[in-house]
Amino acid sequence: MQSKRSRLDQFLAKKLQLPKKAVRLILLAGRVNVDGETCKEMDRQINEFTAIMLDGDFIQNQQKQYYMLHKPVGVVSATKDDIHPTALSLLAGVNIEMMHIAGRLDLNSTGLLLITNDSQWSQTLMSPETKVDKQYLVTLANPIDDSYVSAFNQGMYFGFEDITTLPAQLEIISEYQARVTLQEGKYHQIKRMFGRFRNPVIGLHRESVSNINLDKQLLAGEFRPLTQTEIALK
Ligand code: URA
Known about the structure:
It is a single chain. This protein is an alpha+beta fold. The protein has 2 domains: 6-60, Structural Genomics Hypothetical 15.5 Kd Protein In mrcA-pckA Intergenic Region, Chain A (Roll), CATH 3.10.290.10; 66-232, Pseudouridine synthase (2-Layer Sandwich), CATH 3.30.2350. 20% of the residues lie in helices and 29% in strands. The radius of gyration is 22 Å and the shape is elongated. Bound molecules: uracil (URA). Uracil (URA) binds next to helix 5. Uracil binds next to helix 5.
């Protein structure tokens, strides 16, 4: 999801349904206030979080919002779905109109799901270039052994997309459980990687993304706003 950058005059023309000439006159008359100051510049760059007033009334005033949700099984990581409840529908009392999910989880996966209206922030988190760690607790149908560790670390070639996965860390926790750390999120990546060993994943739980750990106080289906430290991704 792209940050919605545009020029002030273009934004006003669209919002007020006026021709550019009329917008220019409104601006020159000093009737527009941008982030607390009168603005007469047609080409002023704005985005969806720039506070804009016309004649003292807000015509745009959106605050940035960031939440973590403990995603339960059976909830779909989407804004709309005809069959399953969506992650956004669990954010009771939150205005979800402009919100999106930063990094999806499969229908049967559980754990940390980040939801925001700040597309620049979610891009930073999810872009393969940023190489943010995502940690998952994985439960397998069959026992695992040390050969998994090197295979995950070497990366795996997926012919369908013609890609080799980045080195992933696998820590064996018990015979049937591993903690996997990825820096990317290809389609069904973890399931497909264990698929190479013909070992079905029977539980997949995201514990953290970057410095954001799933809050242990949150039961499945519960959510809370992120703290300033979490938002800062440090
Ligand atoms: N990998 C998967 O296969 N599924 C997820 O939900 C997340 C990572």
